[in-house]
Amino acid sequence: MNITSSVQYLKGIGPIKAEILGKVGVFSINDLMAYFPVKWQDRKLEKEKDLNDDFQDSYVFFGKIQSIKDLYTSSSLRIFRAIISNGAQEIEAVWFKRHNPRYDVFSQIRRDIKPGIKIWLVGKPEDPLFKFKIRVEEYYLETDERAQRAHINRIVPVYPLTDKLSAKFMRSAVYFSLLNYAQELPEALPLELLAKRGLLTAPLALKALHFPENLLELKRAKKRFIYEELFLLTMAWAIKRRQTRNIKKGYGYDLKKNILTPFKEKLGFDFTDSQKTAINQIFKDMREPSPMSRLLEGDVGSGKTVIAMSALLLAAENGYQSAFMAPTEILAEQHFMTFEKYLKNLPVRFEILTSKLSPVQRKKVIDKIAKGEVDIVIGTHSIIEPSVKFKNLKLMIIDEQHRFGVRQRAALRHKGEKADMLVMTATPIPRTLFLALYGDLELSILKDMPPGRQKVETSSVQEDTAFKETRIELSKGRQAYIVYPIIEESKVADLKSVKEEFEKVKIIFKDYKTAMLHGRMKSAEKKRIMGEFLNKKIDVLVATPVVEVGLDAPGAAIMIINNAERFGLASLHQLRGRVGRSKYKSKCFLISNNLTPDARERINAMCSTSSGFEISEKDSYIRGMGDVLGIRQHGDMDFKIADILRDSDMLKKAIEDKDELLKNDPNLLKRENFPLRRKLLKLYQNKWNIIDLT
Ligand code: ADP
Ligand code: MG
To answer: Is residue 103 included in any domain, yes or no?
Structure first.
């Protein structure tokens, strides 16, 4: 037997338990040892001081059984009680079992629990303050030394469990497999790195992670695995990136300018220096022999759409198909309208593809795409559905990339293996985080804004003040957004809802045209309202955060955000970015209540700075980023133990070490790097399509 053998051959497991373990993904002995605890309990009589959040409360008692009271109750419950003393203290231990007419549920307990015998108890005090009545969860006889080693008088692991998987069983199984097999665990990390970073070796770390002797050891074990996960991730990205560079796409681009030039003329403004630089970088990438993989990062309103359009048009000029994917239907619609505005009468065919098309329309568009009768497809996730087959897809652009996950990016990539890819985001990402999340991408940053933009004046006010100011702006012909966090009133949370507040707003602004916009409205309705807002036929738009991403209504100069305390810093900044998109002075009002210290910090940050890059340096921004970047929702980063937001210092070290290692051994061909190579392939070969390492 070795670590790859099935768990069913381990002592005390067998085929039935092996099947139960299979349900949680544990098949081999190696899997069992790699089943990481989520928490720990300190089951020593003298507990360690300063137990941190990793620890669950646990009550442990060691004493001699004094007397026994076997109780039979009238209900379906049976109760067994014993009085136990450790000399200084006497407690009542209580066992509960569901009554079973077919056998004595306490037969084992009655055999074990006899006066004069010494036992260990683990359980829950009936009353947390007066610990003299204990509901027993586990007990161990003093004579059962083998069991004690894994379960008692030490720190024990707490695993994610299922119905049929008991804590005690799991703990024993892991304990005894570690005892016999931990030393066989291959060391994936180069020894030199372990020494340099002071990390435990794999077998030691694994033992210490499950059954640490003390807090310090647990900390060291975690450190080792956090490092390992981050190091492998950054290695995988780097290799992936190198491989993309080695792919030959086998087609080229000519700058014909037959569409680009008239498009530029129609725009009616000059590109900013940042936009020019970005377009140059993108065009250069597109004309390279290997596919482009680039991230364009630019604050809200910095003008990313026209950059994307330039690239899409370059593809169209060369007779290639391209896709432009946005996270929401509303945004896709808006992009479509922008295309209509700027590309009228130019020789370029574009279509919109969202889930809201009727089956007939949808089929028509899909057919056209397959036949190559569309140059540019603008749409939502619908574009990545398997039924959509391009004839000649050469360029893919993802807007608001942070709303998608790595997997969706991979799915789009799959549509055009050798195609160029550009992803765009308004979310400034700290450098290390960028490398962790997008380590396969090159980066372009838009540093300046289109000319004439004014700072959006932001303040935290009461509703009446916000409405008064809104009235003033409306009278000057400006438009306003009023955002509420939810669509309909809900009993669970004390939040203002669009539907309810809209009735109020309608009356307050009765001399203006008001409308409502939220995600649950019919597609055509949404489209009509958006179009009317963009064309200034609507003055006040009452909406949910569906307007958060990308919307571009230059006439809007007021943004009111209700229940601002509920939004993360990045979302607030995005919402604010819907105004201040023209030469008009714009204002953003944050209305909030029940401010937690964290929420207050966010609101203050919003009021004191307007730059997304400055905001991105705030702690609460980084803390809230998991949600914004979709790290959690998309399950991209299915780390077992690392957290890229929390462990950014460790990530920095891992990145440094990765650079150094790849410099010395780019293809991991040195003998000492074989285990690392094997581990990388195992983890990432299928996941991210890292095809080979040569
Ligand atoms: P974002 O980067 O947030 O996606 P958009 O692409 O929506 O920003 O652009 C915001 C607004 O700025 C749009 O109305 C766009 O037409 C305008 N714009 C973009 N570039 C320039 C420029 N160089 N000069 C003037 N206005 C511009
Ligand atoms: Mg945009």
So the answer is: yes
